[in-house]
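Justification of computing resources. Each target in the renewal requires a structure prediction run like the one illustrated here; the chain below, 416 residues long, is used simply to show the kind of job we budget for.
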Amino acid sequence: MSAEDQQTLPDNISPNEFAEVLSALRSIPRSDQRRWGEVYVRGLLAVRGKKTMRALANGAGSGAEQSLYQFISKSPWDVDPVRGDLARLLIERAQPRAWVVQPLVITKVGQHSVGVERQWVSQIGRVVNCQQAMSVWLAGDRGSCPVDWQLALPECWTDQEDMRRRASIPTDVGSCPPEQCAVDSVSKMAQEWGLRGRPVVMDLRETSPQPVCAELVARQIPFVVRVDPSSITPVPPGPKTGPSGPGPADQGGGWVGSAGLLSALHKQRMPVEWFDHTEQTMRATSVGAARVALRKGITVHGQPERLDLVLLAAWADPGRRSPSEFWLSNLAQSQLGTVYRTAMLSRRVERDLAEVSDDLGIRDFEGRSYRGWHHHMTMVSLAHAVTVLSPSRAQGAPAPTGRITLVPSRDTKVSA
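Resulting structure tokens:
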């Protein structure tokens, strides 16, 4: 396959950035497969409209469509080394401030795509035939990019042998709720990929936040998660239980119980300036914070075990008594503005999903295999990275100054 047989990169894409990002394919052992990976990413960047295999292969020579199909759906190359190398490149080049978990709903017409099921989707507000996935994005004020993907498989796909065989689902892959998929992703990024910890931003309004928060604390992962206020029931802050006894987080007081929670949040609020990436403008939001102790389970001694966290409340309209949003975090209450600005990076990701990834075919994979879905999503991540790193896409606001520090606790670590 000669250079003349390949799709031409769009004018807004830097050939140098393309070559640097595509170096993440170096872990794929066969050179011919790496070449087809380059063809695939070129196609994602160049083809307008739906990214079918035929469209991506256009101009790549005889037999290109079959070769691309083989590379995506059949070849056994491992996505994790590619994704890990991409993440390390983005950390070096873009210096992201957060790992943002972004759900993705991919509606489908038929029943044959891996993981598809008729299910209630809160983002859409009705039952739809779809795949549900979770992605983790490295995000900063100037841009964001997805680096890991998990497909939330319903039990009907993992409990029936014929369904598993049809989609070539690996034997070690089971059914997984979306929020657990996200926890598994960020844990892998921190522990297996060896990435420096950044706060995980995640929306947990549709589920109980305590199990997820407890698991993130246990894995020493910093976080800021959006929650439904009805799920927050503080317990008396008494001595912290655990193998090492009371920790530093128990010192200094300032804990708030259920009765005085809203009043304490209201009294503590202060204006926080942040950049709204959806509207491309600076905003000021009134934000308050309080230290809370939440029940996370029962110890073998029958005593309630606590999560010592910070609850943030934000008022979009300062004249209203009730806050418009609530966030739980294990980051320091004293860094209120930085923590809230970190949470607002979720809007950066929402914008880049709509403006970049959707145009790169993030919902266009037509294959039926589990492996093919992950391979396609990895190629979309590479194409997305090329786009946001290209000099012509100068975007976002200047990154706010300030370092992030944790609530003093032996349970959690973060790199500022």
